[in-house]
Amino acid sequence: MDRLAEEIGSRSQANGASPATKAAQRAYETRRTFAIISHPDAGKTTLTEKLLLSGGAIEMAGAVRSKGNGRRAKSDWMDIEKNRGISVTSSVMTFEKDGINFNLLDTPGHSDFSEDTYRTLTAVDSAIMVIDAAKGIEAQTKKLFEICRLRDIPIITFVNKVDREGRDPFELLDEIEAELALSVAPMVWPVGQGGLFKGCYDLVKNDFLFAGLDKTVHYDGGLDDPALQAALGETAYGAFRDTAELAAEGYADFDPAAYRQGHLTPVVFGSALQNFAVDRLMDFIAEHAPEPRPQPSDRGPVDPSEDKVSGFVFKVQANMDPKHRDRVAFVRFCSGHFKRGMKLDHVRSGKALAVSNPIYFVAQERSLTEEAYAGDVIGIPNHGTLQVGDTLTEGEVFRFTGLPAFAPEVLRRVRLIDTMKMKQMSRGLEDLAQEGLVQVFRPTIGSDWIVGVVGPLQLDVLASRIAGEYKADVTFEPVQYNVARWIRSGSEQALKEFIRENTMNVVRDRDGWPVYLCKDEWDLRYIMNRHKDIAFDATREIVGQGVAAK
What we know:
There is one protein chain. By secondary structure, the protein is α+β, with helices and mostly antiparallel strands. The protein has three domains: 35-89 and 112-288, P-loop containing nucleotide triphosphate hydrolases (Rossmann fold, 3-Layer(aba) Sandwich); 295-393, 3-Layer(aba) Sandwich (Rossmann fold), CATH 3.40.50.300; 404-541, Alpha-Beta Plaits (2-Layer Sandwich). The protein is 29% helix and 28% strand. The protein contains 15 helices and 30 strands. The strands form six sheets. The protein has a ten-stranded mixed beta sheet, with helices on both faces. Strands 25-22-24-23-27-28-26-29 form an eight-stranded antiparallel beta sheet. The protein is globular, with a radius of gyration of 25 Å. The protein starts with a helix and ends in a 9-residue tail after the last strand. Pfam families: EF-G_D2, GTP_EFTU, RF3_C. Its main location: cytoplasm.
């Protein structure tokens, strides 16, 4: 059992409650489940590595781009990630430090994988937003921030690469305030930049992190301490003190309540590659990031202090271990105290599911876990039983909500190079569709597969994975359709009649839901005006409702 849970349980006996009940109610308070978001190349994966290093989860950080296989980035485990130096799938990493259990979710930065990122953000309670000191707020950063804002996820801002030449720190702070409509509270300030970089100064704790020296010095006198002036030299000290005082006085003080409500972002300047201020970032998450929060469901919010176990599947990953053709469902627990071997109700199927081999991760590496609390993320190996959006409970019937599927923006017909590999291709498409990498559609007439993606890079990943994991080579051809919408109606007869009249344009997704395909937005508006009784949806809620009627 969790060490903190044991302590709480022993202290609670005097209050009349059983130790197990009190432990389950309080152990979740030691959980910090957070994601890292950024525009590509801002340093997100490097920061992930250094947080793992700081937390003791790994002994040596890899590089996003390095020679050979010895020091690859830990969170980028797919071949295409290693070869291209990008993250194309979310990774989950669990580690413990100083009594706090961290669940870190590394998300893809590329906009083509925004749907995977969105679903991952449904499973976290806070996020770190990484900004390149030379580029500031970039397009994908802003999009991901808006997703966090929709879900009221508190944001910590890490301004990365301050050891290189970059923009003025005040300019970056003002841009964050203006572009994201957030108050900013500088916490760690750079001392010089680029060639004049000397380290980072903690404005709250009055600690100086020296560049080039693996040491941190505390100054009781703060910015006025003569020892600090002596350490920096008169010229560097004068410039630093002026800017640090302005940063401290000219922007908001850190307010924990405003941060947790999403109105204020603490800002830490540092360098992930050189390991500057990463420990301070970790300390901040432990001290101020929210513990597990209530999760939305169709019966109302589910509080983490509830006794009964509940959780939802936010991601499915196929073939993490190619030798075993395995499928792992990532489950975020929302309440209760889960123990290995428990039988949980699989709400979608109505059947009991024995969880005998729950695992936790450091990227691709895995270990068995004996228990989990609200806020924890574990993997459940299965053979297709669990899908994204599924709810697991301890004897209750409800569904967690808030996991959407988005209408694809790019549609392509799949062509198989070797027709003898049809079975392998079909399995690969179905597996990767369940994983959420792509959406797969089957026409009402004909046997061609049509895939839908957010961006073209997903097609490269799809072809690479089908070739590597299923030994089938595929190519993609354009189709006459560019727009896809799920269709529904309050009248079952009206929906059947519409599908009959538009047989060539209606396909079925992997769950059997009807999807209308058309050439462009003009065609969509035309058909919508003609059929007022049909709803054309750009998103669909994934709540594990089962397969639609054919």
